[in-house]
Fold these 4 entries.
Entry 1:
Amino acid sequence: MLPLRENSESNLSRPLLMQEIERYEQEQDDEDIDETNAKILQDGIDMTKYSEFTSTNASGGEDIRYDNLYATLSYSLLQNRDLSLLSQNEQQLEQLQEHHISNLATIEEEYKQDLSNKRQRIEEINVLRKRRQVVDFKPVNDYLNDRWKDGIKSVVELGVEAKRMDMDMH
């Protein structure tokens, strides 16, 4: 088994979480992060910074970067585990997807039926309104027609009376 770090005795006194936090902060300090040029990773963890497994030491020799090796190994194991779980659950996921699609189809049909019912109800209401207008308009129309006829009669009678008076005067 490979040793975790060269100075593992000094690291044993600090909790592992604190070591990881310090390592993360150190990596953040080392990197020059520009918010406008920050790249959004869509394919998971960016493994490029963990792909260098050796580094040159002060004496010119090469040191093995165990942190990078362990990070890459852990990532690979987790990715393999995720893929195996996905393949095991593929049939269940497919069934769930089909179930949800059928539920969505049912909901869509219900919405279409509701929409059809509402349109039919709107049409019925419009027909009722038109009938009421016709029924309510008929008495008013009859009254106005009678008044118009009476008005014409009175104008004709006044015209006849005026002509008669004019003839009596001559």
Entry 2:
Amino acid sequence: MMSEKAEESTEERRMVAIAVRPCEGFDAVALYAKIKAEITSQPEYKLKWDDECKIEDGRIRVSFSISSEADFDEEVMEVLEMMEDEVARQEIIFQCVME
């Protein structure tokens, strides 16, 4: 029986870098804390956000990893779109699958 740690290390993960522009008047650091708290995905996909984000020209730049089995667009990006009162725009900067 494979340990959970060994199983996790062999799982293919998708690494995604995104940029999020907060709506006017919203603090980027506070918004990132809210994003991390509210966008958690399905437990089996083991979504992991960076501990901290980088703020560049008012945009939140951050990356996350999620199981390659997950539809990250549905699990993360669509949820960001629903935060329209706080998120003005979001974009995918880079993505790849890691073995």
Entry 3:
Amino acid sequence: MTRFQVLVADDEAPARAKVKRLLAEDVRFALAGEAADGTQTLSQVSALHPDLLVLDVQMPGLTGFEVLEALGPEHCPAVIFSTAYDAFALAAFEAQAVDYLLKPYDAERFGRALDKAHAVLRSGLPDTARLQSLLAELGRAPAGRPLERLVVKVGEAWVPLPLADVWRLSAEDKYVRLYTGQGEHLVRQTLRALEERLDPSRFVRVHRGDIVNLDAVARLEPWSHGDGILVLKDGSSVVLSRTWREAFLRTWGLEG
């Protein structure tokens, strides 16, 4: 009998111990590993390729939400959330995730969550549509709060990248290239989707394929036909299209 491999991710050791103990009582599943924070979770998923992830929402380093976003629908295992979130958030989880565990939970409730996960895993059907919908929900919560960081891969490690360190974002097909003072990173996300989550008082679109951090702009130079050239503090430059010129100047503190 093939046992589905499970990764347990929670920053609290007693919580991980509880999940491991309950898993040991179910012959359908086996423990693949455990992780104590979001960054470690990403590394473990990449290394172990588990079938199921029991994921705490609120972890240090990276939240459970950011872990899912970094993995993306194509590379994410089935997910059971373990969370202390309120009923509003749970409603979204219940509709989109395999299941959720509201702390504190008992063995019977955990067993029902495993039953759901087992049914999903036995079906063999990809669950990317469900996860994509879930990520869309998470991208809107909490409402009105702009994104503060992204998760990028550096070598074999996943690291959080504060958006304050990003000077420019450029579209590359279904990816976005992030330019920082220390180098470049590529994330699998469209520029339009990412723009919706950025702080509009700091990040402004200047061209069809470019967004800049206003804190990184050193000066604006005129060019031609209403376009301009933005020179960034690292000496690089990007075109300010006339299409976005007025909005940029207004946000930058100038008019017209």
Entry 4:
Amino acid sequence: MKNENLSRITLITLVVLISGVFLSMIHQFLMAIFMAGLFSAIVTPLHTRLSNALGGKETIASILTVFAIIILVLTPLSVLLTVVISQAISIGQSVTPWVQTFINEPTIISTYLEKVPYYQEILPYRDIIIQKAGELVGTLSSFLINSLSGFTKLTIDAIFSSIIMLYVMFYFLTMGDVLLEKILYFLPLDDHNEIRLLNRFTSVTRATLKGTLIIGVLQGSICGAAFAIAGIKGPVFWGSVMAVMSIVPAFGTAIIWFPALCILALMGNFSGVIILAIFCGVVAGNLDNLVRPRLVGKDTEMHDLFVLFGTLGGLSMFGLLGIVIGPIVAALFITIWEIYGDTFKDYLPKVRSIRPKNEPNESDQSPPSLL
């Protein structure tokens, strides 16, 4: 008996140790592998239909599915990225002399201040405003330079990660069922709970990607069109940036359009201010606040707070991909606690109702839902 226990302890130790070494060895590829798993789960229905149409030829169906993703998703993104980069370079070339002028002659800001309504009221603070504006312009110039170099590196990393992701997707589509069965086999959970976790993972992934894509395209298009109407240079670039920033709930696009609105006000372009306030502030802002919780929260069956904090926490921990990973982790957190409540409901004490006496109280043996 002692030898058997020692053998099991040794085996578990080796499993943990070797698995840790292996995961550390491939840690730079884990995000690409994870995203390959997400997209494989999403395009599985397409792969299944192609496989059935081809008489069960899984390999050919997987190749066609990957090519469909390249043609329908990656190619349009590449074209858009080319336009965005060209407009970013154009904006950088036009902004650099303007920034240099402000750095060399910060008092030029007073020319713009004179166009602001109620100029006499802010006149006592003129020197402070000029000083702070000069500091802000210097900070922005440094930020732009660092962002361009970082963007170049990010683009190269994204291309490499996309190649890895597509390569892994091919194998996930071809033999994903076998791999998934192995993973579920090693989980010491009931079949019902394993399927419950898997279904929640899949539903949240699809809803999050769908919601992020729809909201990003709508907000980026609306705000980009507003920038074009207001006469701001590079509307496609700024619209694309705001489409990405829309992943931050509630105030994502405002990080871009509100400073632009302030600059237009300083320049005396009040028609542009009104256009940005209406289209970016009212239309796009309400689109985010009204559509996102219903689009993502409804399909994932999660409360708006879980969607919000899952998204923000995911962005903080995982970066841009946290927009997808964050809500998934939040959903799995809720699901695993519900499984815990269902499993140990015979051992957990009943909670006395905290509802007011005038409200109906239904006695239920099942644990309360977090949703």
